[in-house]
């Protein structure tokens, strides 16, 4: 009986941890989407500092996404897309610093499309 | 002597205009002037030279199977009756009721090539086939969503949730009206009821309400209560309306930032003029019998839809910028067929629906061309998604958002050209780099109207919004 209780206890802990990890992934994706929209707006409004802040946030978040898919395994596409997204975020930050907002807008649109490409394969319904 | 209240109101109006100018960089239109706050539909210059003046957006409600209309797939014919090879389903999530069925082809389907372009058309579209060399196909269309209402919303507004402006509303906002006596954005439909997906698909969203679409009802009187009641004399009505106009405009000066009020006033002024202009625009009595036959008005099945397309042509002639036409029920002996959504008995469904639209659309293209209007008009055949090559319920097809065909015709395009393709069975887009989402179609339509989708912006609650959300790519390969 005691062994059964311990087994049930650890099963609950394990499933909570798994659920928490999945939940974190959903929150992370939502944050990325929100910050991405904020970035597009700030670039359109030619706000340098807020755009930089958004681009840096995205770059950090895409690092987390990349690490997640590396750990998950069998997700080379997603790893590549995460790397591409991170690089685009870095490039956008540079362009915004140079006040090249037109090119930054184009790259931001590329970034959004890159997100979409990854969702095609990996987004849970 | 100016009162303190008047001084504060007028100063606020000027300051508000100046503030708006600072908040809308890159928008070359003069949206920030006080004059435009008074008339938000004043004509505005595009970002660069436009190739077209009007758009006729032909939404095929219910999602026709383009593998039965424009996409000849010999491999599908060869493998009909067999399971879908697993390789074709990689990367997509299907949700067909009962599971993915066997590949299906109608025994009545035949295909031929037409025109110099050699475009394939099925036996369902004999009239439109003759227009092959006027059409520009996008055979790598994609979208999101497996339910009609959500995907129709995305098709028209770019979002899966209500709240964003429709494409026509953005165009009204960015270009204003070319005819002060008609709305710049009109919605047409045939049948007994409004399009089922609702007015959220021609809404202005967060844009000022004045930019929303105006639905013209089928029938002689396109708008409710447009005609003067018999008991009122013309002079009596004129005097009342003039007094009302003066009072309304005096009142609106006290609420300079209220866009709903401005829209209402603008609509009253417009309604006054539309009492004559709207019925005249949709009055087909002066059209020749030959023209009416060209649009299929002599066939009960196609008469309703043909009437809307003939009205669309007349609205183009009168400077309406965006005409959103939604297919309604076919008329005549069409049984229980309402829209293109053929989950079963596709042959019956598509035979009726194709008969409803084939002659009218071909007639519209022919008529526009003969009047020299096709060069400055864009006609778009579009749908919320298409249908799977595998069968459903034995003789139907399920929804397919992963790869399908739309087409455009008119100014600024390469006629007789095809962009992109689906795979050998018509499941998904073959080359994902050529996938054309709804945002890309919107960006391209705006481009042809002389608008850069990245620079057509509106400040909503501190955030800069654009028609293509955060996406959108102009399909340059199809542009002349």
Please give a structural write-up.
The complex is a heterodimer of chains A (125) and B (480). Chain A is mostly helical and 125 residues long. Chain A has one domain: Four Helix Bundle (Hemerythrin (Met), subunit A). In chain A, 90% of the residues lie in helices and 0% in strands. Chain B has 480 residues and is an alpha/beta fold. In chain B, a hairpin with a 2-residue loop joins strand 13 (458-460) and strand 14. In chain B, helix 7 packs antiparallel against helix 8 and helix 10 packs parallel to helix 11 (346-370). Chain B is globular, with a radius of gyration of 24 Å. Chains A and B meet through helix 1 and helix 4 of A and strand 14 of B.
Order of helices and strands of chain A: HHHH
User: Which architecture of chain A per CATH?
Assistant: Up-down Bundle
By oligomeric state, this entry counts as heterodimer
Q: Overall pLDDT of chain A, averaged?
A: 86
Write down the CATH topology of chain A: Four Helix Bundle (Hemerythrin (Met), subunit A)
Main structural class of chain B = alpha/beta
Helical segment count of chain B: 12
Round the Cα radius of gyration of chain A to an integer and report it: 18 Å
How many structural domains in the coordinates of chain A?
1
Report the uncertain regions of chain B.
1-35
> How many strands, what sense, and barrel or not for the largest sheet of chain A?
none
Content of β-strand of chain B: 5-15%
Strand order of the largest sheet of chain B: 6-5-7-1-8-11-4-12
Give the integer mean of the pLDDT values of chain B: 89
What is the number of helical segments of chain A per DSSP (H or I, 4+ residues)? 4
CATH C-level name of chain A: Mainly Alpha
